[in-house]
UniProtKB/TrEMBL annotation:
One Pfam family linked to the record: Peptidase_M1
Region (Disordered): 712-738
Biased composition range(s): Polar residues: 714-728
Gene3D superfamilies noted in UniProt: Neutral Protease Domain 2
Superkingdom per UniProt: Bacteria
Protein name stated in the entry: Aminopeptidase
Domain Peptidase M1 membrane alanine aminopeptidase per the UniProt entry, residue ranges: 413-563
Entry keyword annotation includes Hydrolase: yes
Organism (species): Roseivirga seohaensis subsp. aquiponti
Length: 738
């Protein structure tokens, strides 16, 4: 064995191991990922014994438009499909994040006031110091279906219900709750749901979510997921069926998750006729409630109420919006197997932009995401216009993007509005269908969704100035101080910059993975496989990582380690280039070759080695014949390679993040060539590598990452010779030289 090692060292004299430069960047994730088992396999797919719980809801709520209050009651039926016997269950009380003494309120005052501050914004003061708001669920009862009180304990935003008898595998348990709560003014207190008050016409627009006690997730990885809701980490939820009755003033229009069960009871004959027409309109939206009709209702107040009833199957949540201000339009979307309705609800303050763009964006999103992941399975997708918010729920989302008060808008307003609609409608796929745990892993829904948003915007809206979620867009964050960074694999409540760390950095990583590391064909097939494997299930990060590798045949552990587990960045320095030529065919063959030719640059041409004369090297046979009987065609090889230009380029990885090399060669005849080298070039030396490139033409310059596709944070050292260095050739010309 020792002789073979010595032989290999002789065969590769250009490879230097003077520096170890090893940080285990190419080692497998190994025990970093959970051990595969019968529930989740090593390939990343659900195992043969995979299980998940089910929670069905029958809910009745009333919206009090005079006092801005929600009151409701529900019956929840919880089915235990786990192999465990449960003595208690956990319920989320997310509205309790608005209670004055909840953990989020007591700990979210991150920041400080400057010594010279003479004022403090009222909304910040209200949210951080004294909201003056009586928030949180007011529970009136928790009972079994016969009305017998159950023992329960409220721990901040979570409630533990002790079961009368342990719940065995395959059994179900039903319980009832009744509650009410005050709806928050989002302009003052923010929030994922609440109301907006329109002072001009004294009307309200309600976007209502987290409005009912919701079952927490119990799964094979964590048991109960009962992390507190502190404000940033969103939700982990259980799939089930919903029947929800919503009582509102009779002049309100209601948008909600699920299919409307009683349209003839709540719509006018004209609205009902238009609604049916919309189901057959594939080329443009049909306006169901017009702006003129909505404006007429703004001036009145109905004295009666109507109840809108919706049903939804196999969804993880339910949300709704209600207002007398709503204009409503809808358009059918033709997918391969389904025909969902794309719908928009918006006040006159959203026009003319919303009538023009909203439903169009919903249609484009459903088509694009269905192509890239799974076909959209639900009967509709809704975009509701609400100020300064982007928030998602099954079949419905709340989106910002408002024209100026005079109705004008520009490309900037349009881009922001369209991209947030694409993003929030896209959340129907991640996490509403591919149901990741947002409370723990925000990137699994926000990052994957931001990546698909990026692709949809470039496919359908290349005429808009959209620049988000790309490798180039993440550079300002990546080059910032690591004291204010956390890895992607961080709980959102501990994230220091949630936008980059959960949204744009994961998206940029996936763009690099698709466009440069794997290629679109391999990536797209693997991503679709992940979507199909985990549709209507509960994936974890390891399931995504493993599926992408399993379905593509590409070892990506180095990629996940660098991009997702560290705060390293891409910073590659093209530090040195040496230029050699193979000597002509009459050169005698030697037994050895010395390729240590020194730098291309000499003292006269140190600024630009490409104006130097190349060092000639001899083509020799350094192979040991050993047991081979065949002849080596030395003359033919020498003739074929004579005159070749060899460029030995040294790359330094000063950012720490392993990356492929994308190189642009500019030749002296003015032509250019892009060459890609896989990231595995760093596997033997993670901080510096040298590589020899053979070229027929002579090279004028070299540039790393010419199209800014790798998120390199310092472009000043990407080119050779340096762009900001005047060459010796140019200096000589200035002095009158040749």
């Amino acid at each position: 064995m020792r002789k073979k090692i010595l032989l290999l060292m002789c065969l590769f004299p250009l490879m230097s191991f003077a520096q170890q430069n090893w940080g285990a960047k190419f080692e497998q994730l190994g025990t970093t990922l959970p051990t595969p088992n019968e529930y989740r396999t090593g390939s990343g797919e659900p195992g043969p014994a995979y299980w998940q719980q089910k929670a069905d809801y029958k809910i009745a709520v009333t919206l009090d438009d005079k006092n801005q209050k929600i009151s409701g009651s529900e019956t929840v039926t919880y089915t235990n499909n786990s192999p465990s016997t449960l003595k208690y269950i956990w319920v989320q009380l997310d509205q309790n994040v608005r209670k004055a003494d909840n953990t989020g309120a007591l700990t979210n005052g991150f920041g400080q006031l400057r010594d010279n501050t003479s004022s403090l914004g009222t909304s910040r003061a209200a949210s951080m110091i004294d909201a003056g708001f009586d928030g949180g669920f007011k529970l009136e009862k928790v009972t079994d279906t016969n009305g017998k009180p159950l023992t329960y304990l409220i721990n901040d935003t979570m409630m533990k219900i002790t079961l009368p008898t342990p719940l065995k595998t395959g059994e179900s348990f039903s319980f009832k709750t009744a509650w009410w709560y005050n709806i928050n003014d989002r302009a003052q207190l923010g929030g994922r749901s609440g109301y907006e008050h329109f002072v001009e016409d004294d009307n309200y627009l309600y976007t209502i979510a987290q409005f009912y006690p919701r079952m927490a997730v119990y799964d094979d990885v964590n048991g109960w997921q009962h992390k507190q809701f502190l404000g940033s980490g969103e939700f982990a939820l259980t799939f089930g069926d919903f029947e929800v009755s919503i009582t509102v003033p009779s002049d309100h229009i209601v948008a909600a998750t699920g299919t409307l069960q009683n349209p003839s009871d709540v719509l006018t004959k004209t609205e009902l006729q238009r609604f049916e027409q919309a189901k057959k309109s594939f080329d443009k939206p049909v306006i169901i409630t017009t702006q003129k009709e909505a404006e007429a209702k703004e001036k009145k107040r109905a004295s009666t109420q109507s109840t809108w009833t919706f049903k939804a199957e196999n969804v993880r949540d339910f949300a709704f919006a209600s207002s007398r201000k709503f204009i409503w339009d809808a358009q059918a979307v033709k997918l391969k197997n389904n025909t969902p309705l794309a719908m928009s609800y918006y006040p006159k303050e959203g026009n003319p932009l919303w009538e023009k763009e909203s439903t169009k964006a919903v249609v484009n999103t459903l088509i694009s995401y269905s192509d890239m992941s799974i076909e959209y399975p639900y009967p509709k997708a809704i975009s509701v216009h609400a100020a300064s918010i982007g928030m998602e729920y099954p079949m419905i989302c709340f989106n910002f993007g408002r024209p100026r008060p005079d109705g004008t808008y520009d490309d900037f307003i349009t881009t922001n509005m369209v991209s947030v609609i694409v993003h929030e409608v896209g959340h129907n796929f991640f996490p509403m269908i591919v149901n990741s745990d947002e409370r723990q892993w925000a990137w699994m829904d926000e990052g994957l969704n931001s990546f698909l948003e990026y692709r949809t915007m470039h496919e359908y809206y290349d005429y808009l100035p959209y620049t988000s979620n790309s490798p180039a867009a993440i550079v300002p964050y990546m080059k910032g101080s690591k004291d204010f960074m956390r890895p992607i694999m961080t709980n959102p409540e501990q994230s220091l910059q949630l936008g980059p760390e959960a949204y744009s950095k994961p998206s940029a990583a996936l763009v690099v993975l698709r466009e440069t590391v794997m290629g679109p064909e391999l990536f797209d097939a693997a991503f679709k496989e992940y979507s199909e494997r985990w549709a209507f299930k509960h994936p974890k990060p390891a399931d995504f990582f493993r599926t992408m590798e399993d379905a593509s045949g590409v070892d990506l552990d180095w990629f996940w380690k660098g991009w997702f587990y560290t705060t390293d960045n891409v910073e590659v320095d093209v530090s040195d280039v040496k230029w050699f030529k193979i000597k002509g065919e009459n050169q005698q063959i030697e037994k050895t070759v010395n390729a240590q030719a020194g730098t291309l640059g000499n003292e006269q041409n140190a600024d630009n080695p490409f104006y130097a004369k190349p060092q000639e090297i001899e083509l020799t046979d350094s192979r040991v014949r050993g047991e081979y009987r065949s002849e080596i065609p030395n003359d033919a090889i020498r003739k074929r390679l004579a005159g070749k230009n060899l460029y030995q380029v040294t790359f330094k990885n000063t950012g720490g993040l392993i990356t492929p090399l994308v190189i642009e060669w500019t030749y002296k005849d003015g032509t250019k060539e892009i060459e890609k080298i896989p990231a595995e070039i760093w596997r033997l030396s993670e901080s510096q590598v040298s590589h020899i490139f053979a070229k027929d033409k002579e090279v004028a310059s070299i540039m790393f990452d010419p199209n800014k596709e790798l998120a390199d944070v310092n472009t000043e050292n990407n080119s050779f010779p340096r762009k900001n260095t005047q060459s010796a050739f140019d200096k000589a010309k200035e002095k009158g030289g040749n």
